[in-house]
Design a protein that fits this description.
Blueprint (H helix, E strand, L loop, with lengths): L31 H8 L2 E4 L10 E8 L4 E2 L4 E6 L5 E6 L5 E5 L4 E8 L11 E5 L2 H15 L22 H21 L16 H10 L9 H21 L4 H18 L7 H27 L7 H10 L1 H9 L15 E16 L4 E16 L16 E7 L9 E15 L3 E14 L4 E19 L2 E18 L9 E16 L3 E12 L10 E16 L2 E16 L2 E18 L9
Antiparallel strand pairs: 1-2, 2-3, 2-6, 4-5, 4-7, 7-8, 9-10, 9-20, 10-11, 11-12, 12-13, 13-14, 14-15, 15-16, 16-17, 17-18, 18-19, 19-20
Helix pairs in contact: 3-6, 5-6, 5-7, 5-9, 6-7, 7-8, 8-9
Length: 598
């Protein structure tokens, strides 16, 4: 065997070349037991979570059909430009490996085992210009490995590199989408007019020019759901167009705001609104990143190439991602590398009893309703090798509906780490801290609040014993949003403002059998930046729950929700409202350990 030019590591002398005509075999090996082991095929499942900043390629080698790691497999990384050996490693008892490489270069990866040299297998080309790109490339390598290569057909480029990245495509898609949306609104809402009598969606070059040159920026008076939910979802579509075309988060944020600006200039005849720029551009980026990452978790699956149904599921979560995936074929078919984050999700379905009280209007009533709640924590702290180098490498997302036809969305709540890092204290405490972005939309029966926020805070896990764990988040920051009645009072049913907000979330986990949850939120909008600067909104929300596991991932839970609103304005009586909801739910757990990161 030759010695590599820039390495003192020699390959074992028993390694010998053999044919590898397809992606997974057949194989020529010595001994019947070896043939039995390898006949099913080896799949190099490259786990991107273990790529450290110093430049390491990490992952695992698994037996394909049994999905079991294989010990003692030689992993060889070579520089494709020079042919020199860049790194070498061997898998441990679980089939995991870690090979150090420099963070610049183009590399090929090969695995060999049991006296068999797999160097004639299709090489996995890893393109890297920086360590984050190296991470992306490995995820592409995993997808390419599991796809049988066809002679003369190049593999899809790694996500976000080469032809797999385009700034032009979303720059064309977003204006086209806005033109189609405006055309639809002209037909569907032809009777909607501005206060001065002009149709809202009958825009022309003249109205667009007038907005650009003489437009007066205002706080608009659209309905709460339009401003606080529809506009963030519109921004999420812009975000998906850019992200699925291989554009990074911060660049996609520019696309989100440019799309919001184009709509304000040419989508409506009314004056452009500052509040819509916040909800479409900023809140839209937070919601869009969550939906984009959830869609790619569906596409990643167990590491195999996604089929039609997984692609359809991803499209339902992030429609603009699906448009690029189906519309451009292999160009944007590579899956965004999640780095295999530790996640925990739960789905709750049950029956709720709500009691609401409005002291200002002497209103009180009870109501039964079905409830559905889905939440996911993505990138929980504590997993060795998982890093927080990209925005939203950690986020928490929750969606709840109480089956109210007039108010179908009870809440959407998002918090994600924009800039930060992980830390540890001793052997039992792991955490992350930094700047979080947040989007909350909370709409109980008689009042509502929604904010877009930036907060400083931390998320952590503390395990004082093997059977007890405490997880939580503590955040404090500033939000810009709206709060108000469901029943209109005056010109509108809500008021905009800027003010502090805070969150405290705790989860006490007792082994694999029970979990206690407690989450408190506080919003104080003082009217600054809104149209009622002398008013204020003080909203609080407390959620407590107990879940007990029955069998496997099946469990039962009891949830209690308490919400309050105190509002003071100089031109109307003070408002004091509250609501309580008790729910008995069946819960499907993402894993039986309640999300403990071991």
């Amino acid at each position: 065997m030759k010695q590599a030019a820039d390495s003192q590591i020699r390959t074992p002398p028993r390694m010998r070349p053999a044919a590898w005509p397809a992606a997974f075999g057949p194989y020529r090996v010595r001994g019947d037991w070896k043939a039995t082991l390898l006949r099913a095929g080896l799949a190099a499942s490259l786990s991107t979570w273990a790529l450290a900043q110093a430049g390491r390629i990490s992952g695992s080698v698994k037996e394909r059909s049994l999905d079991q790691g294989i010990q003692g497999v030689l992993v060889t990384v070579k520089d494709t430009g020079t042919g020199a050996l860049a790194g070498i490693g061997t898998t441990d008892a679980a089939g995991r490996y870690s090979v150090g490489v420099r963070s610049w270069g183009t590399f090929t990866l090969a695995v060999s085992t049991l006296g068999y040299d797999a160097s004639n297998a299709p090489d996995l080309v890893v393109l890297s210009e920086s360590n984050p790109d190296l991470t992306l490339a490995v995820a592409m390598a995993r997808n390419a490995w599991l796809e049988e290569p066809q002679p003369g057909k190049p593999l899809a480029p790694p996500w976000g590199t080469g032809a797999g990245r385009s700034h032009l495509v979303p720059a064309l898609e977003i204006p086209l989408f806005l033109a189609l949306l405006n055309g639809y609104d002209r037909l569907a809402y032809s009777d909607v007019v501005e206060p001065w009598g002009e149709k809202t969606y009958s825009t022309t070059w003249s109205t667009t020019r007038n907005h650009l040159l003489h437009g007066k920026w205002v706080i608009d008076r659209d309905a709460f759901a339009m401003n606080q939910f529809n506009h963030p979802y519109q921004g999420a579509l812009f975000h998906g167009f850019a992200r699925s075309a291989g554009v990074g988060y911060w660049e996609s944020l520019l696309y989100d705001n440019m799309g919001a600006f184009l709509w304000k200039m040419g989508g409506e005849t009314g004056n452009p609104s500052l509040n819509d720029m916040v909800t479409t551009g900023q809140a839209g980026s937070f919601l869009g990143e969550v939906l984009f990452r959830l869609a790619n978790l569906v596409l990643e699956g167990d590491g195999d190439r996604p089929g039609f149904w997984r692609k359809l599921g991803a499209t339902a979560l992030s429609p603009s991602t699906g448009i690029n995936m189906f519309g451009f074929g292999d160009r944007f078919s590579s899956v965004f590398p999640s780095h295999e984050p530790p996640t925990y999700w739960r789905l709750q379905v049950g029956e709720s009893l709500s009691s609401v009280n409005d002291r200002g209007q002497s209103l009180s009533f009870n109501r039964n309703a079905a409830t559905l709640d889905y939440s996911i924590a993505y990138g929980l702290p504590g997993k060795d090798g998982y890093t927080y180098t990209r925005p939203f490498d950690y986020f928490h997302f929750q969606f709840t509906t109480l089956g109210n036809r007039d108010n179908p969305v009870d809440d959407i709540m998002i918090r994600g780490l924009l800039l930060g890092t992980d830390y540890e204290a001793g052997d039992s405490y792991r955490g992350i801290w930094g700047l979080y972005g947040g989007y909350d939309y909370i709409s109980p029966y008689i009042f509502r609040v929604s904010t877009t926020s930036l907060s400083l805070g931390t998320t952590y896990q503390w395990r004082p014993s093997p059977v007890v764990a405490l997880q939580g988040s503590l955040l404090g920051g500033v939000g810009y949003g709206a709060a108000g009645n469901v029943t209109p009072v005056g010109e509108r049913d809500y008021h905009y403002g800027l003010g502090p907000q805070a969150l405290l979330a705790l989860r006490l986990l007792l082994g694999e059998w029970a979990a206690f949850d407690l989450t408190g939120r506080k919003y104080y909008l003082n009217g600054s930046g809104g149209n009622d600067p002398s008013g204020r909104e003080d909203v609080g929300r407390l959620n407590a729950g107990f879940t007990v596991r029955i069998h496997g991932r099946q469990s039962l839970g009891l949830q209690y929700l308490f919400s309050t609103r105190d509002a003071r304005y100089p031109d109307r009586p003070d408002s004091h409202q509250s609501g309580r909801t008790v729910s008995l739910v069946y819960t499907l757990l993402g894993n039986s350990s309640f999300g403990v990161v071991k």
